[in-house]
UniProtKB/TrEMBL annotation:
InterPro entries: ABC_SsuA_sub-bd (IPR010067), NrtA/CpmA_ABC-bd_dom (IPR044527). Residues 1-35 form the signal peptide. It comes from the Bacteria. This is Aliphatic sulfonate ABC transporter substrate-binding protein. Pfam families: NMT1_2 (PF13379). It comes from Streptacidiphilus cavernicola. NCBIfam families: SsuA_fam. Belongs to the bacterial solute-binding protein SsuA/TauA family. SUPFAM superfamilies: Periplasmic binding protein-like II. It is found in: Cell inner membrane; Periplasm. The keyword tRNA-binding does not apply.
Length: 375
């Protein structure tokens, strides 16, 4: 399957244009194994000291990844927009490799709000019978590809017998790969990764070395990891956008602990305002935003992305306030096909009340929960 052509980053989809038990995604996922300790945002190159009106919480703990698919917190914390909107409420950040660890941290009370892919959010909500979290905003669409060694894999059929990496057992790209393989007739064990194709769960930071060393033959990964592999000579076999109507699908959401949402709605609304404000700034300043994202990644990973990798990765994704809720049920169906869960009841998984309040204040149209909103 050929990939879609790379294009310049699209403008942010403002409004609707783009449309409590500690329960982890899977019992095999242990919280903290791939996460940095929580630290004040300023320690990760983020905002200035907290100042301004006091909200109902002294601090808010925000989790996200050192990935471009989490561009909004990367940039908004880096340039101070989040701290400006949160006033005297201190931001503490925690960085994760993939969603299963992050959602376990959210459910255990280690973080309050998180940027996360749809699959871990879906499974946490389903397994907690609707008690674990709420999706409160969109964040990103696009930015995930299956990239492979062209000397070994030229067609989808050539995947048989090969080793393909994903970031973590049960994360969004892991589910996407397993669903894709199932639709192409490959037989896989979702838990072990064994089957016609060997699925190797590998930390994103280690995937480029694993590829260059020959221990994997490709990977289904988010940006900028996919573009790092392309810089190592890999080729895009499947751009995930090509699998979705109009190329639109949710790749990152914003979620919140229901406990924190009930106790501190003003803080949650301030975080959402920061997200909307940051997305608007990205739309108006795409080149500066790209530089800010790279600066934030440099602080977090100790290494800047080369220009070629940054430009390639940045062109593959779009930030959006719209959660693209209509695609969430399809994401859940993929998890069922992959063998991770039984068909879940997602009724009430969204609570877009505060987001739509923020959008209305900014003169923007409300976004839809596609029938899966809070009652």
């Amino acid at each position: 399957m050929s990939s879609l052509p790379r294009t310049r980053i699209r403008h942010v989809a403002l409004a609707a244009t783009a449309g409590v038990a500690a329960i982890g995604l899977l019992s095999a996922c242990s919280y903290g194994s791939k996460a940095a300790d929580a630290t004040p945002a300023a320690a990760t190159g983020g905002s200035s000291a907290a100042s301004g009106p006091k909200l109902s919480a002294d601090s808010v703990r925000i989790g996200y990844f050192a990935n471009l698919t989490h561009a909004t917190p990367l940039i908004g914390i880096q340039n101070g927009q989040f701290q400006k909107d949160l006033g005297a409420t201190t931001i503490k950040t925690q960085i994760f490799n993939a969603g299963p660890d992050e959602v376990e941290a959210l459910n255990s009370g280690a973080i309050d709000i998180a940027w996360i892919g749809p699959s871990p959010a879906i499974n946490a909500y389903a397994k907690s019978k609707g008690a674990a979290l709420k999706i409160i905003s969109g964040a990103t669409t696009g930015g995930a590809e299956l990239v492979v060694n062209p000397a070994k894999i030229k067609t989808v059929a050539d995947l048989k017998g090969k080793k393909i990496a994903t970031p973590q057992l049960g994360n969004t790209q892991d589910v996407a790969l397993l669903n894709f393989l199932s639709t192409k007739g490959f037989k896989e064990n979702a838990q072990t990764g064994k089957g016609d194709v060997s699925v190797i769960r590998t930390d994103n930071s280690l995937t480029p070395t694993a590829y260059s060393g020959g221990s994997i033959d490709g990977a289904w990964v988010p940006e900028p990891t996919a573009s790092k592999l392309v810089a190592e000579g890999a080729k895009i076999l499947v751009d995930e956008k090509s699998l979705w109507p109009g190329g639109k699908f949710v790749s990152t959401n914003v979620v919140v602990s229901q406990t924190f949402l009930k106790a501190h709605p003003d803080v949650v609304q301030a975080v959402l305002k920061a997200s909307v404000d940051t997305n608007a700034w990205i739309a108006a300043n795409p080149d500066a935003a790209k530089k800010d994202a790279n600066d934030a990644l440099t602080v977090l990973t100790k290494k800047a992305l080369p220009d070629a990798v940054l430009n390639s990765a940045w062109s593959e994704l779009s930030v959006t306030n719209d959660p693209l809720a209509a695609s969430l049920q399809t994401e859940a169906d993929h998890a069922v096909t992959a063998g991770f869960i039984s068909k879940p009841d997602l009724s009430g998984i969204y609570d877009l009340t505060l987001l739509n309040k923020v959008l209305a204040a900014a003169g923007q149209q409300p976004v839809s929960a596609a029938g899966l909103g809070a009652q």
